[in-house]
Amino acid sequence: MGERIGVEHTTRAEKRRASRQLPKFLEALLAGNAVKPNLPESPAIIRRMFQLPFDAPLVLVVIILIVFGLMMIFSASTDFSMVMLGEKPTYLFNRQLMWLGVGLAAATFLTFFDYHWWRKLAVPAMGVTLVLLLLVVITGEEILGSTRGLLNRSIQPSEVAKMITIIYLAVWLFSKRERLTSVTLGLLPLAGIIGIVGGLIWAQPDISAMATVMVLGGLMFYLAGGEIRQIAVLLLISLVVGLLVVQISATGNQRFEDFLRGWKDPAEGSYHVKRTFEAFARGGWIGQGIGKGETKYTGLPFPATDSIYAVVGEETGVLGSVFVVILFSLFLWRGLAIARGAPDQMGTLIAAGLSLWITAEAFLNMAGVINLLPVSGNVLPLFSAGGTNLTVTLAAVGTLLNISRLSVKAREENGRTFNAVVDLRRGDGRRRVSSARRTTVPRKRI
């Protein structure tokens, strides 16, 4: 009788604990682990999504960004294609679809391309990137005071340089991890690498891309275990160089002065900032509706590229603008989660660097549009028209998914190894692994 009461009490306690637990597919979503939970009552599409061998939430966030971005490109590029480019209204949109196909192919390939191969390919890839940057300076066509592209600006090596620099630095820092504290073997070579890449980008000139490379170099040095004093020296040097570049460059100086004036009084800001503020004012809380914005027709500079976030603000309002911020925040969260669970430090550095780069590009663009930072020329990833940026961004996503896939594979192999040890114990003729059972002690007969 006592045993039955004890069993019933245990069963009721287990039911109460189970009622307070989240469903397993929600636990998987919050944990971000690509597990294979048992979901007999869930729709088939949910079961398939959480059985993916990589980070499912990241894939979902990227799909939403791509679809939202295509909608905004279609809306923002019609007038720009006809008036500025002299082409059909759907010219830029069709090109974006073409480059999207190229980017998805690159992402698929890199998802199944073991990132450890970059240990052999990083140096040749960096060499090719430096040659492309040099060709831009020598043979590139100058448009609007800058020379940034090859083949009629179809390919912009500065965008490729960002991703390749991150991968190269990750491989280099991983190989030099025992000597990072040395100034001559750690800090100075790192400064030389960043300086060469940044100098070739500045010669175009592309100040925003140069600043992005320098900041990412410092962040990755910190993540690799560099000393705080070395990082402080690197940041101080970067700040001094940045200020000198702003003073020397007419474009940088003008943008900084416009930012200060607009910060004090929006009415005194640059023409670009005034028109973006007008777009957000028209949008209000819920927006005018996608395709119904007017500022893109009345002089908003570069509505399909640099200023596409202003079009988002006008046509989807504050709600749509905040939704974009949330999406990129989720992207950063998942990217850093992948970095944390990477199989080794090189995977951690690559995943963290790529996640921080894409998110930094997005937030610099959005902050520049609303005059929280000087207009930098950064595009809004997966939104702004531009084949090279779209392809490289999706290639970075594929690399993140590869690191996530190998992390899941490593965990599964470790689990199988553990289970195999237990099974061997069962088949060696000895006693099986003991289980938690109630043992009954025989009573003495009185």
User: What gross morphology would you assign?
Assistant: globular
Strand content: under 5%
List the total number of helices: 16
Helix content: 55-70%
Q: Whole-number radius of gyration?
A: 27 Å
SSE series: HHHHHHHHHHHHHHHH
Polypeptide structure, described:
This protein has 446 residues and is mainly α. The chain is 68% helix and 0% strand. The protein has helices at 2-19, 24-31, 44-49, 56-76, 78-83, 91-111, 118-139, 157-175, 183-202, 207-223, 228-248, 250-264, 271-283, 308-340, 345-369, 387-426. Helix 14 (308-340) packs antiparallel against helix 15 (345-369). The two termini are 20 Å apart.
Secondary structure blueprint with pairings:
Elements: H1 2-19, H2 24-31, H3 44-49, H4 56-76, H5 78-83, H6 91-111, H7 118-139, H8 157-175, H9 183-202, H10 207-223, H11 228-248, H12 250-264, H13 271-283, H14 308-340, H15 345-369, H16 387-426
Helix pairs in contact: 4-14, 6-16, 7-8, 8-9, 8-10, 8-15, 8-16, 9-10, 10-11, 10-15, 11-12, 13-14, 14-15, 15-16
List keywords for this structure.
446 residues, mainly alpha, 0% strand
Summary, kept brief:
The chain is mainly alpha-helical. It contains 16 helices and no strands.
